[in-house]
Amino acid sequence: MFPRTSQNPRPAPRSRAGGGPRTVGSPGAPDAPGGGGPAAAPHAFPAPRVGRRAEGAWGWLFVSPMVLILGLFLVLPILMALWVSLLNWDGQSNPFSGQAEFVGLDNYRGLLTQDGLDRTLFATSLRNNLYYVLLTVPLQTILALTLALIVNQRMLRGRSALRTAFFFPSVTSSIAVSTIFLFLFQGSGAVNTVLSWIGVKGPNWFNDSRGVLSLLLGGLGIVDTSHPTGALADHSFMGLSWFEWLSGPSVAMCTIILLAVWTTSGTFMLIFLAALQDIPRELEEAAAIEGVSRFQLLRYVTLPALRPVLFLVLTLGLISTWQVFDQVYVMSQGAPGNTTLTPAFLSYSSAFNDADFGQGAAIAFILLTLILTMTAVQRFLFRERTPRARRNR
Amino acid sequence: MPNRTAIAALVTCAAMMAATGCSSSFGSDEKTTQDTSEKQHLTVLIASSGDAETKAVKDAAAAWAKQSGNTVTVDVAKDINQQLAQSFAGHKPPDAFYVNSDQFANYAQGGSLYPYGDQIKDADDFSAQLRASFTHDGKLVCLPKDTSTLALAINDDLWKKAGLTAKDYPTTWAELKTVAARLTKGDVTGLVINGEYARVGAFMKQAGGWITNADQTKMTADSTQNTQALNYVQSLLKSGSLKYANQVDTNWGGEALGKNKAAMTIEGNWLTGGMKADYPDVKYTAVPLPAGPAGTGTLAFSQCWGVAQDSGHRAAAVDLVKYLTSSTQMMKNADAFGVMPSRTSALAEYAKKYPSAKAWADATAYAQGPVTVSGFDKVLTQFNTDLAELATGDPKKILADLQRNGEPALTTGE
What we know:
Largest interface: A-B, 42 and 43 residues
Oligomer: heterodimer
CATH architecture of the domain at 110-177 and 248-384 in chain A: Orthogonal Bundle
CATH superfamily of the largest domain in chain B: Periplasmic binding protein-like II
Structural class of chain B: alpha/beta
Shape of chain A: globular
CATH superfamily of the domain at 110-177 and 248-384 in chain A: MetI-like
Helix content of chain A: 55-70%
Largest sheet of chain B: 7 strands, mixed
CATH topology of the domain at 110-177 and 248-384 in chain A: MetI-like fold
Radius of gyration of chain B: 24 Å
Number of helices of chain A: 19
C-alpha cells in the first residue's frame, strides 16, 4: 500500500550495542521528534504531494484509537485539573458551571509566596522529597547495576535462582512490603533486636523525626540541634529556616528510602541485565586482548555501552521518586513531625481531607513542572558531547 | 508542519468542546426532584468499626424498610471521606451517610447536607455540646448518631501491684502526677496516651482553655490556660511517667493498657469493645479524668447522620434517620458494639445498664465537642504533629503556631 515506506532508507540496522560505544552513544538521532512518522521520509526521493497526503491520512487513521483514548483519559483530565487548580473548589459542585469561585493563581500563590501553613507544609514536603530523590535514585541505580553485573556472569552458579530472588521484591505488592517493614522497624522489632546483639540501641524508626544530617552535625558538635542559632536559624526560605532545609531526611524517611531502594532495584536490574546481554562478546574479548583490568572493562566498555539504558533508568527513577505516595500513605501518612510528607501525599490530603481540590491540583501541577524540569536537565547532562557519533553514518 | 500542528490543535479543541459539553450533564444543578412514591430505594453509606456495627446498622435499616415499605441498601465505606467527596462531586451521593465531625463543616459549607434539624421535634434530647458541633449557619444540620467521651482507664493488676487502692484514684493533676510516677516501673509506664490534640486537649479544657471560643468564631489557642496545660503535660513527659502510645510500640492507649505496658490511659468508651475483643483477660476500671485548675473537663466525639441535599428521597431518608436515632435503636447499638447513646434520656438508661461505663456516661455533662470549622482539619493535623514533639518543644511556640495557623481558617471558614 505504501511503496515509499519500503524504500525509506532507514538508518543502517543497528544492533543496540553492536557498533561499539559509538553507535550506542547516539540515541539522539532515532529519538528525534517525528522520526518514526511518514514525515520523516527523506527528501532524496521527491514524491507527489497527493501520495504523501494519503499516507498522512492513513497514518492518522491508524493511530486514532490511541489518540482518542489518550486524549479522553489523559490530556482532557489534565486540562480539567489545570482549570480546577485555578478555582476555589470544594468538590461539591460542578467545577465547569461557574459555581466554584475563580481565584486565578491564588492557589499557587498560597503555596509558593504567601506566608502561612500551606506554604510551610508544601516547603516541608518538597524538602522531604528532595532528600528522598537524592538518596533513592543513585542508590537504587548503583544497586541495580551491581546486581545485574553479578547475575550476568556466565560462571555464576544458580544464576536464575539469584535473578528470581533479586527480582522478587519488585513483583510484591508495595502495600504488603510496607506493612512488613512497619513490623520490622518497630521500636522493639526485628531490626532493633538484631542491632542490640552488636550492642547498638536502634532508634524508634518510624517515630523518629530527627534529621540524619542534623544528627551527624550535632554528633560532631558543630550545631546545637535543639537550639540552632546563627545564620542557619535566622535565614529562611519559603517559611522553613535554613536549618530545617539542611537537617536532612529524618530517620523515618530513611526507612522509606531503604524500602524504595530494595523494592525497585529488582526492576531496574532486569533492565540493566537485558542491556548487558546485548553487549557483544567480541567487545569484551577485544578489550581482554588489549589487556584491560576488570575495572577498566567496566569503565570504558560496559558503562558506555549501557549509557542509553542508564538514562532510561535514571529518568524512570527520578519520575517515580518524585511521585512517591503509596509507601507514605501506608506507613506514616506524613508523620512523624511531617518529615515523610511528600507533595503527592500532600496533594491527596489537601484535596480529599481538607476539601480544597484547587490547592491539591495546584500542588500536582507544581510537581509536574518540577519533574519535567528535572528530566530536561538530565537529558541535557546525558546528551552526546562528542561529534564522533556522526562518523559511522 | 505548521499545517499539521494546526489540524492537531483544531481536533484537540473540538474534542475538548465535545467533552466539556458532555460534562455539563454530570452536574445538572437544578433542584433535585423528589421521589414521592410509596416504595423508594435508599442507599446508606457507613464507615463501620467492625462486623458488629455493620450488622447492627443493616438490621436496623432492614427493620425500618419492612415497617415503611421501602428498601434500603447499606454499604460499608473503605475510606468514607474520599468516597463521599467523589459522590458529592458526581452529584450521586448516598441518601444517608455517616459524617465525621472533621468533615462536617466542609460538607455543610459546600451545601451537600440537607439540614433536617428543624423536622426533629425532640432535638433537645441531644446534648447541647453535640448539637452545637453539628450546627451550621444557626441551623442544626444533622443528628449525632452516638457519642463518646474520654475517661481515665486504669489497669487493675498494675494498680494493686503498686500498692494502690480505689481511694487513690486521682482526682487532681497533682494526684495524677504522683500515681503516674509511682506506677512507672520497668516496662510499665504510668500513663500512656495518644500524642494528639484529641487526648491532650482534655488537659487544656481542665485548665480552663480550649482551641476556639464557644461559638467557634475566635481562636483562643495562645491563652495562658492552654500554656499551663501543655506545661503540665510536658513535665509528665519529661519525667517519663507519661509516654505517647507510639513510644511504647502501640497504636493506641488501649493496646498499651492491654499489653500491660501502661498502668493508665486516657481513652473513650470504644475502649470497652477493643479490650473485649483483643485483651479479654485484662481487668481495668474507668474513672473520671482528674480535675485541673479550672475544674473537670473532657472531650466528646461524635459522628452524625447526614442526609444528602442531592438525594431524591430526602423525606424517606430523614424518616430513616429518625428511626436510627431513636432511643430504642441507640440502646440496641450500645448492646451490639458498645457506643454511647447521644440522647440524654437513653444515656441515663445506658449508665444504669452498664455501671462500668458510668465514668464515660457522666462525662457527657461537661464534655467539649470537636471543632467543626471548614478547612480546620489541616490546622489540627499540624497541631498534632507539633504535640508529638511536645517533650522537647516549647509549649508557647506550639500554641502560637496553632493560633497563627487557625486564624485564617476561621475567617475564611465562616
